[in-house]
Amino acid sequence: MPVPSRLPFEVLRAPAEMRARAEDLRRDGLRIAVVPTMGYLHDGHLSLLRAARANADVVVLTIFVNPTQFGPNEDLARYPRDEAGDLEKARACGLDLAFCPDAAAMYPPGSQTFVEVRELSSPLCGERRPGHFAGVATVVTKLFHITRPHVAFFGEKDYQQLAVIRRMTRDLDLGIEIVGVPIVREADGLAMSSRNVYLTPEERAQALSLSRGLAAAEAAFRAGERDAAALVAAARAPIDAAPLARIDYVELRDAEELTPMTRVDGRAVLALAVFFGKTRLIDNRVLVPSRR
Ligand code: AMP
User: Fold this and answer.
1) Kind and range of the H or E element at 58?
2) Alpha helices in the chain (DSSP H)
3) Mapping DSSP to helix (H, G, I), strand (E, B) and coil, where does residue 14 land?
4) Which of 251, 254, 277 is closest to 264 using CA atoms?
5) Is the shortest distance between the CB of 283 and ligand 1 below 6 Å?
């Protein structure tokens, strides 16, 4: 059931107009939530929007395919877009405002300032996508300054991104509450992603090996396995058996600092990235040793 919204739904495109609106809302004492996305909304995004709706007076959805977080050989030009469909879904979720700038508004000529979260951006996706997290941290900083939120919602699907944004928010004293939202999956286990539309039916079928690998590793972990190499091997086995899958990485790391672990003696994250053709999928599972 759609939740009734107090304000008429509005789409803003100019950063200055968005910031002025946010300042007005703050002056009225309203709590603002922001949900940054690159659009092409699926149920994963909608769970962020619903969590935001339940937590704040005003929810701002941002839709911006941020060029600075894409590498030169990545999928910026073909990234799927459906703004009209996205706005319809946002409206049905009872949203108040959507901020949909274009690249020229976000990066006027002469832009040259970047936000860098050093250690947390180095391993995993950061190692394979140089500059990606500087692009993310920079655009999220800008979106925070433009939308002036009290709270911001991010998915745990992009685990490293969430870690980077939490640290950036703390390190730069941004004073914004960061909320992580659990991964939303298709009925068969595939983590929802805008990029899933790129998959051929054969790739889609074999992409199940990611969640199966994570489930196998978690089962081994629950059965008492604590050796990182053994857990990684358990996660890799179904993916190695999928002929169309090309592993970018499968790694087990400390859940907070993303440093390597040889044995799981605290909260850990098993994170992976796998290519199917040119499509790169990511997924992860947090492993928490129970206290005895
Ligand atoms: P994106 O549009 O891919 O940049 O994602 C926007 C936000 O939605 C990010 O915070 C993602 O982590 C989150 N998100 C994407 N897919 C999922 C999912 N399957 N479950 C939960 N959150 C997600």
Assistant:
1) strand 58-63
2) 15-27, 43-55, 83-92, 103-106, 118-121, 124-128, 132-147, 159-171, 201-206, 208-222, 228-240
3) coil
4) 254
5) no
pLDDT at 66 exceeding the cut of 50: yes
**Contacts within 8 Å (CB) and 24+ apart, 125-131:** 125/160, 125/161, 125/273, 125/282, 126/160, 127/249, 128/248, 128/249, 128/273, 129/71, 129/74, 130/71, 131/68, 131/69, 131/71
With a 6 Å cutoff on the Cβ, whether 194 touches ligand 1 is yes
Q: For residue range 155-211, what is the model confidence (pLDDT) as tens digits?
A: 999 999 999 999 999 999 999 999 999 999 999 999 999 999 999 999 999 999 999
For residue 12 the two structure tokens come to 């803003």
What does the alpha-carbon distance between residue 24 and residue 161 come to, in Å, rounded to a whole number? Answer: 30
- Residues 12-64 have pLDDT tens digits of 999 999 999 999 999 999 999 999 999 999 999 999 999 999 999 999 999 99
* Secondary structure (3-state) at 28: coil
Of ligand 1's atoms, which has the minimum distance to the CA of residue 40? 2
- Whose CA is closest to atom 14 on ligand 1? 155
Residue to mutate, 99, 140, 156, 158, ligand 1, most ligand atoms under 8 Å from C-beta: 158
User: What is the pLDDT averaged over residues 272-286?
Assistant: 98
| Torsion, CA 76, CA 77, CA 80, CA 85, rounded to 10 | 110
Band of the pLDDT at 5, cuts 50, 70, 90?
very low
Cβ–Cβ under 8 Å, residues 248 and 275: yes
> In the annotation, is 145 catalytic?
no
